[in-house]
Amino acid sequence: MRSSRQVGSAALSPWPRAIVLTVLALPFLGCSPSGALLNPREARVALTTALDAWKAGKKPDALASSPNALTAVDAQWQAGQVLEDYLVDGDGVEEASLPGPAFAVKLRVKGVSAEVKTRYIVFGREPTWVYREDDWTRLLNMDNNPRPPGSRGRP
After folding, report:
1. What are the φ and ψ backbone dihedral angles of 130, each rounded to 5 degrees?
2. Where are the domains positioned within the chain?
3. In terms of Cα–Cα distance, which of 19, 21, 24, 40 is closest to 127?
4. Is 98 in a helix, a strand, or coil?
5. Which residue among 28, 73, 97, 116 is least enclosed by CB atoms within 10 Å?
6. Could you give the CA distance from residue 35 to residue 110 in angstroms, rounded to a whole number?
7. DSSP tag of 114
8. Closest by alpha carbon to 131, among 60, 83, 31, 56?
9. pLDDT digit string, tens, across residues 62-108
């Protein structure tokens, strides 16, 4: 007997998002030995540590082995763009829809004439995650993102 449930990407698309959100939520459910919630001051220190590393020419992966393990997710940094300078504007804003404080940041990137204004979301412990807002949004909407140009696969 066949199930009437449609099998395809549309029917299964909520599952990848649910899995990612569950994994990201584990520290907030008390699964972290040292507590998962960062206060805005701790989050700002983590953010500036990550941005200082980028400005110094380090790769995002280098932060994972530091004493205060950080995982930085920034597509431009990972793609090799060079950060010349940055300014963190304010003390971080806590929003119910985000797992930690969000910070407005102005970036000066080599080869880009205009200042780049973005936000970073900082959360978790061991590791602490520093997510550029665009990458966080892409993660949450991964089943709705267009396929990158030139990629092949099932339609």
Report:
1. -120, 105
2. 35-144
3. 24
4. coil
5. 97
6. 37
7. S
8. 60
9. 898 877 789 999 999 999 999 999 999 988 999 999 999 999 999 99
* Strand 102-109 to 116-123 pairing: antiparallel
Cα dihedral 121→124→125→131 (10° resolution): -30
- Residue 136 structure tokens: 């966080």
| Beta partners for residue 118, in sequence order | 105
- Residue 26 CB partners (closer than 8 Å, separation 6+): 32
Q: Which token pair is 140?
A: 């949450």
What pTM does this model have? 0.70
CA angle 136, 121, 84 (to 5 degrees): 95
Nearest C-alpha neighbor of 50 from the set 113, 142, 135, 115 = 135
Placement of tokens 């970036």 in the chain: 107
Residues in the chain: 155
